[in-house]
Amino acid sequence: MAVAVPLIRPISDLHTELNDVCAQAQETQQPIFMTKNGKASLVVIDCAAYEAQRQHERYVQKLREAEIEAKYREESVSQSTLDETMARVFEVWGV
């Protein structure tokens, strides 16, 4: 599996080549690491790529939560048991 080479540009490109930086971020959908004096200073990422990354992080978090719940809750509840329990709850609340 090939590892993607990070996109690295000098921070001065934000002043001199902003349109090119924006186009590269949109085309690659990868973060662009901006450097100042040879050191990482900030990261530029397209909004759609950022939202996709955040959505992926939310999915991973939900999977982790489900794994933890499954680990500590070994039993499952059948649909009929759930239906009976909910019917009793609704009966008590007069719904």
SSE order and pairing:
Layout: E1 7-10, H1 13-16, H2 18-28, E2 32-36, E3 39-44, H3 47-72, H4 79-93
Parallel strand pairs: 1-2
Antiparallel strand pairs: 2-3
Q: How do you describe this structure in short?
A:
With 95 residues, the protein is α+β, with helices and mostly antiparallel strands. The protein has helices spanning 13-16, 18-28, 47-72, 79-93, and strands spanning 7-10, 32-36, 39-44.
Number of helices: 4
Strand ordering within the main sheet: 1-2-3
Structural class: alpha+beta
Average pLDDT number: 91
Portion of residues within helices:
55-70%
What general form does the structure show? elongated
User: Low-confidence runs (pLDDT<50, min 5 residues)?
Assistant: none
Can you summarize the main beta sheet?
3 strands, mixed
Distance between the termini: 57 Å
- The SSE string, one letter per element, is EHHEEHH
How many structural domains?
2
Could you give the count of β-strands? 3
**β-sheet strand percentage:** 15-25%
Work out the radius of gyration: 24 Å
Describe the structure.
The chain has 95 residues and is α+β, with helices and mostly antiparallel strands. Helices cover 59% and strands 16% of the residues. The chain has four helices and three strands; from the N terminus they run βααββαα. Strands 1-2-3 form a three-stranded mixed sheet, covered by helices on one side. The termini are far apart.
